[in-house]
Amino acid sequence: MSTAVQKNRFGFLALATMVTLLVAATFSSFAQAACSYPDATQVFAPWKDKGYYQLAPEGGLEAGGSGWSLEGGAQLVADDGERLHEGEQEETAVLLPFGGSATSPPVCVDDTTPNFRVMIRNLGAKDAKLRVTVTYEGTGKPVKAKNNDIHSDTEDNWMPSPSLKLETDKEEERIARITFTGKDPKTNYLVDDLYVDPFARH
């Protein structure tokens, strides 16, 4: 092998290593920043939930759904229906028909963020449900939230989901993505305002 080829190979390996380290550092910085939730408030006080919550990154679709993954007919729609909670009010929501799914951007969680809630609006059958699935970086398979099927009996009004559990698995920090899927043939839901609870204690 010529000296020139060796130099090229070593140069490529050095460049690849630098790129890998840069990506890892960038992701680590993002995760650390995302795990900081300094502006949590009692968003769901109208429903007698005294917990403190803060919007997950792009949880209110305030940047037009940037980072969300929409599949199976899920789509962003305009909806100015009053959300009723005390958080920031937005006019964009995700429409989820049967089989449609919406997956959130990465959300940093740890032992201090064990729960999350989301606003939902039922436009379909009264007993239709949404399936909630949480996946974590590096686990290799989906891990479902404890209360993985949610629904709203209140027709055509925004309501908060139950408080759903995040499995932090005793890790100091891990990255989660939360997927909402239309489960039943008559499902037709709107989803908006994904909140995490950084001050819950159990």
Give the structure's gist in a few sentences.
This protein is α+β, with helices and mostly antiparallel strands and 202 residues long.
Q: Keyphrases for this structure?
A:
single chain; 202 residues; alpha+beta; Jelly Rolls; 2 domains; six-stranded antiparallel sheet; 1 helix; globular
How would you characterize this protein structure?
This protein has one helix and 13 strands, in the order αβββββββββββββ. By secondary structure, it is α+β, with helices and mostly antiparallel strands. The strands form two sheets. Strands 1, 3, 4, 7, 10, 11 and 13 form a seven-stranded antiparallel beta sheet that branches. Strands 2, 5, 6, 8, 9 and 12 form a six-stranded antiparallel beta sheet that branches.
Furnish the topology, listing elements before pairings:
Layout: H1 3-34, E1 54-55, E2 69-71, E3 75-78, E4 92-97, E5 101-103, E6 107-109, E7 115-122, E8 130-136, E9 143-150, E10 158-160, E11 164-165, E12 174-182, E13 188-197
Antiparallel strand pairs: 1-13, 2-5, 3-4, 4-13, 5-12, 6-12, 7-10, 7-11, 7-13, 8-9, 8-12
